[in-house]
Each structure stands twice: as structure tokens, then as C-alpha cells.
Amino acid sequence: MRAVDIIMKKRNKECLTEEEIAFFIDGYTKGSIPDYQMSALTMAIYFNGMTDEEATYLTKAMLHSGDVLDLTGIEGVKVDKHSTGGVGDKTSLVVASLVASLGIRFAKMSGRGLGHTGGTLDKLESIPGYSISLSEEEFIRQVNSIGLALVGQTADLAPADKKLYALRDVTATVESIPLIASSIMSKKLASGADVICLDVKVGSGAFMKDLESAGKLAKLMVEIGKSFHKNMTAVLTNMDEPLGYAVGNALEVMEAIDTLNGKGPKDFTELCLEISSHLVLDAKKADTIEQARKLCIRQIENKEALHTLAKLVKAQGGDERYIYNPSLFKIAPYSIEVCSLKNGYIGHIDALEVGNVAMRLGAGRAKIGDQIDHSVGVVLRKKVGDYVKKGEPLAVMVANTNEIEEEKNRLIHSFTIQDEQVYPKLILKVMK
Ligand code: URA
User: How do residues 273-325 score in pLDDT, each as one tens digit?
Assistant: First the structure.
């Protein structure tokens, strides 16, 4: 088999076989197929697409390019969730705590933030002492003893995806449905959970800008998961504004804690309840989605989910006092307000731009390996649908300097203010 023939086949809009895809991924992972041939293939896939079958073969090849976690040592059903990447998305912290507080095993390996999107690991590290590194044995032992673990990748999971994603990032081939689906699903399948809920973001702050393409991506990921005998749900959710009010690491953990105290933002609380309810239902802890939702609400009201978060933090070396007293979090000293230039309703908040402002303040990384500042970020004062008067604050930048004119300008222009009121819909579709 020759790489060039496989590239030519895809260039000519033909379907690749399982053997051809496996040959290409194996050669690329081992280094016998160079970046330039992989780039040519991904560009051909970008333009000519893949059938669902080809995407499943690609997922399988990437899944088997490295370790596959064996979670059989964990008793009961193991659940996991994944978001395709959003701004202000601290959902994993709340969902993990809620679901695990009901006795469901939540075993999650998370990622770090890159570009305008944040990562769960960075958020957790704003809690002093929290360690994201557990060995595979410690990971399994912790899930068995307290019901949950939230760690960085321990094993060498889907190394082909790691290499390929970095290549796609610099060859303008990220936004391809089969490539995104196989990238996400190879990692999810390698992490070993039985029940998976995917939060597929739609809108200006997401990879998928419209409902149709997000639906295609969700359907493909659900089908791939099912072909590996996983219990799959995909929830399509609006990313036409940041989720909740807080964007930035410590600020987001504080908002997650508020949510577990029953005082979270409406949209964020709703998303957490939606995802948690699907996991509870699919883990067979409830007979209907309504019953699952009631259970989740109860775990917030009786503070069991909050106590579960504290247990997680303590088990991973963090200071659990922060969970009960969020004023302990170190927050940057300058709060700089951005005020509205006119009266009107908020029609749209460019989540991508808000994420970029938070990143430029130091909350995120422009490139892999950059240091981040957990204490900075952006806190919205208005959300889509709210009325604002001229001179009233739209958002606050929490920063370590007050010389941030450019960020201020960017932030103000990320708000669209209009005469008509809009009523944003958060949960756009659920697919099983
Ligand atoms: N997230 C991933 O892990 N992979 C993609 O291709 C896009 C988003």
C-alpha cells in the first residue's frame, strides 16, 4: 500500500477502506508517513468528506494508536461527558459532582484550555494544592472509593489524534465534521466510560456555527459511539453568548460553587441539569428524564453535590475550604467596567471575542505550554435578552493591570445592542 495512492483516492472522491485508513494512521503515528502527506489527506477529507463508515474506521484507527483505559476495575456503570468547547464552560465541575453524589461513577480525563476556550484542568488548578495527575491505579481506586475523579490524561490515549490535531490546527483543516467526530470519539472511547453525554456547542463561539452542521456532527458522534456499544446522548446547546456570567479560571470555579449552592446563573444551571439528567437516566438511576432531573435538583438543594465536589478536591490534594468559602480564591486586584454606549436590549454577545479578551488578560493560552493566570477574567453583567441603559455596565474585566484599553474596546464591541428583545434558547436539540 502507498500513501500517495490513498491520498489520490480521497482526492478523487472515492471511499477509503478500513485497511487503507488503518495503514495511514499507523504510518503517521509511527513516523513513516510524513506530515506533508497527512496534510494532503486531511485537506482532501476537508473538501470531499467521508462516509459514516469511513469516519468510524478513522476513529477506530486513532483509538487503537495508543492505550485504551480498562475501567473494568471500577464497579458499576461509568459515565463521562464531553463538550466540543465553549466560553465560560465550567459544566464538568457541576455535572461530575451532581452525578457522583447519586452514586454513579464519574471517571473523567479532561484537557487544558487552548485559544479562546477554557479547560477543566486549568479551572481546577485555581484551587491550591489540587493535583491533576493520578496514576491509572490511583484513578481507579479513587473512583471506587469516592465515586469520581477529574484528572489530566494519564495514559497515552489516542496519540494519533494528538499529532493530527496539532497538524490540523496549522493546516486549516480543523472544521471538518468527520475529522472532529473521529478526534473527539477516539479520545472518549479510549477513556473507557459506558455512558457518554456530548455537549455539542452551536453558534459564534463554537466550531459549528449553525444547527444543521452541529446536528450532523452530533449524529455522527452518536452513531460512532453506538457502534462501539456505548450508551450515547448528544445535547446541542447555544454558544451565541458565553455560558453563565464568569469567564476565567478561579471566577468560573466560584460560579460552579454558586451553582451547587443553588445560586447559579439560569442558563448554566439549566445546562448542568440537562446533561446530568441524561447521564442519570442512561446510568439507570431513574426511569424517566423528569425523575432524573428531580433527583439532580434534590442533590443541589440538600448540598450533597457540593459535598461531593469538596470530597473530590480533598482526594486530589486540594484545599476543600475553598469550596465552602469561595472568598478565599485569589482574584486579580483591578476591576474595570465596560459600559454601554446606548440604551437597548442585548441581542448577541460574541463568545469567541469574550474568550479572546479573557485569554489576553492571562486566563488562557495563545499556544500550548503558555503560563496562565488563574486570578483574571471577565464577568458579564448583562446577558442576551437583558435591557441595558447607556452608561450601565455590560461586563467587568478582572485584571492585574488597568492598562487594558485594547481589551476594553474589544469587549465593548462583542455586545450587540438592539431595539428588539430576543429570548435565547439554550437547549436546541437532544439526539440519542
Ligand atoms: N475537539 C477535539 O478534541 N477535536 C477536534 O477536532 C475539535 C475539538
Answer: 999 999 999 999 999 999 999 999 999 999 999 999 999 999 999 999 999 99
Phi-psi sector, 283: left (phi>0), alpha (psi -120 to 50), beta: alpha
Intervals of CATH 3.90.1170.30 along the chain: 331-418
The string of pLDDT tens digits covering residues 181-228 is 999 999 999 999 999 999 999 988 788 989 999 999 999 999 999 999
Say which residues have a Cβ less than 8 Å from residue 316's Cβ, sequence separation at least 6: 124, 130, 131, 132, 134, 142, 149, 150, 151
pTM above 0.85, yes or no: yes
Q: Whose CA is nearest to atom 5 of ligand 1?
A: 180
Q: Catalytic: 390?
A: no
Residue 161 known to be catalytic = yes
CA-closest residue to ligand 1 atom 3: 184
Q: What is the CATH number of domain 78-324?
A: 3.40.1030.10
pLDDT per residue as tens digits for the range 40-51: 999 999 999 999
Superfamily of domain 3-49: Transferase, Pyrimidine Nucleoside Phosphorylase; Chain C (1.20.970.10)
CATH of domain 331-418: 3.90.1170.30
Q: Is 168 among the catalytic positions? A: yes
